[in-house]
């Protein structure tokens, strides 16, 4: 059994969930889990002088969905520029692929592992297309993964909200999560996507009527937030607010947060929702105001959605935003309206230091990080690939840990909208390694309710990343020396050596099955897919228990 | 087997409509009844009987012998090719692409000629699309461009464009443009007829109308399309339907590009989606799997060990030109049409493999959705579950898995 036992020795361990901040201690692994001790003589991995952390946990990315596949089709040029040969694995079968801002599935898994990330969630999957996402996840090795299920513009839910049938809405949400193999409830631009499809184009206020109906973004937020909390889901409702990317949208964001005051909720890619100014009159940072609210409300959590300069791919269910981006930029644009549920918009984009809005977005994201007071509730993300590829996480970590690098970068920016911003005025804070460990693994794991992820205590999954220290922080975090997945070494001396299949993280909450007759009638009246064929069959593994035990 | 079995909510891959509401009756190992009575579904399912032979060099063989012979043939090739023919589940297609990767082969859909112009146009421009249920629920105006769906997609109108229950569309207006002998539906509120050489000019003019431009001196022959474009601007949600598969008649390669541009532009004054009608057999699934595994939807070369796009020429065309020294056809052999495998060593694993002339190795398998469970994609990229109604001794997915293992085993 020695092959299943391993002791990592001599490393400085950063395990903030267990109060360990850089102490040199051994980590013992048996059968894929962390154990308290091992007998003498077991295999060891020498991490002397190195930094040991739990594997990274990506709480919000777009990498395994029908939308991503539409995006892949838009970038044969990027793929041609970044062909990826199969890695030289010691065991198992290696696959080739393509990179760019939206890599192919196998390459995505390999690159996440190469970065020290071992868990990732696709944050926006239309229920109708969940079957596709699971097929892509089957082909995405090295990471345990799951999907967040889009519900904020769902026709059946809107009808229940309109009728005040909140219990039925909760039961429907539970059924939908189980039927799609989902992990969390996702809201994107509540009511706005339905408005886009109906010809209303969008909603702008929390109390706007959606397509002339007695349902508002505020009611959608409240209903689904309460549903997720009442169901005891391990991760609360995951919210992409209205008015993404619009100057002055911080008021909508704060209004959404105030609406849900006292209720557990996660606000995603907050950077895109923290702008002052007015449409047509200019932009400003409102990061300070918003993060101050978050700091004061422990029931809220966020991920930042940092913009990084360079090529990106905007992929979102917030289809009206993408139309705006296309119509103002003339860039290639894909839009797919998804019956009864959602939408999909895609526009390739490049963020430039010399572009005024890009520069402001970069500043806003960093301000959110640097002005936050509780790293456990502010997660690192770039909304991959919307704000930039997940491959840019190391550069982002460097910006957070090194003020000099940050200040040098600020000097290169277009200053048009930066007047009065806290970052431009100088923020001295530098993140510690422990804080980085919180915002990249311990925090997101806790917010996702994954009890065996994001820490190195006894019973945790042995998903572990070992970094060689390097004065260049970006280099250190982009090339881990070792990465372990469920106790097996997948990256060795910086090279991918194994690519095991990841586990599927999914739920099947209970619900009152009296709703199924009504849902079936809805399908028979309006869906192009038979009710009997809707639920995804043959999902791998078992659903997680609702205690969040992963 | 005796007694009648009834299968409900069965998915049909006979055309791209992907109707999943069929009732199939089976008795004594044969399909004996099908409802609703769609001619394409009847052709697709037949009585469910397909050959179940395995041969190597035209002599009967066991599955192990056939896999061994196929692996030897492919391992000895320097320019192998994998063709994804229809009638396979997506899982089997994924395995076939894995084989291409292991072999460093070229890989293409056997039917990529049919969709290439639309795929390439969408890569240049993006596209405005929708799932078919969205068309059903919202489209109050539908333009049929040089196609009457009743001919090759018999239930399209009934399921996706007819009056009846819809969340939003309370009325339906059909518009029709015929191009040469490719006729639109006969019953339409407005109709236009175009000579083929006027098609692109007409579409350019319609785009200008959609932009809000007004014209004087429009030639009489183009006035009807101007009226159609103006009517489209007034719609709440416009569906533009065209046939993305080749008909009997040649058509302009730029049609797809121009229609994509028109549908995108319509999203200024109103909402709109383009629907490209596709033939059956999970061809959209093959393109989807190729894209997520290689980055490209068709015509991929894995020679040299990494994906390269070769969009200019189809795999079948390259095969005809001597571009391969061994070929694996994964899927229905009939998709190869008149192409025989007399001139290139060939392996066919799929329905009707034994009927392909000249195949060195042939493994007849069941058909996805008739004999094999899995997933098939509708023409709007919606994945649907496939319910087998009959048994077959050889599954395509498992046979391809065995071959993949054998090929990888030889490589080690």
Q: What is the helix fraction of residues of chain A, given as a range?
A: 25-40%
For the biggest sheet of chain A, the summary is: 8 strands, parallel
Mean pLDDT of chain A: 97
* Helix-strand category of chain A: alpha/beta
Choose one word for the global shape of chain A: globular
| Main sheet overview of chain B | 9 strands, mixed
Spatial arrangement of strands, main beta sheet of chain A: 8-11-12-13-14-15-18-22
| Multimeric state | heterodimer
Q: Report low-confidence residues of chain B grouped into runs of 5 or more.
A: none
CATH architecture of the largest domain in chain B: 3-Layer(aba) Sandwich
- How many angstroms does the end-to-end distance of chain A come to? 24 Å
Counted by DSSP, the helix tally of chain B is 12
CATH class of the largest domain in chain B: Alpha Beta
- pLDDT averaged over residues of chain B: 95
Strand order of the largest sheet of chain B: 5-4-18-17-16-6-7-14-15
Alpha-carbon Rg of chain B, integer: 23 Å
The proportion of residues forming helix of chain B, as a percent range, comes to 25-40%
Query: What would you call the structural class of chain B?
Result: alpha/beta
Strand content of chain A: 15-25%
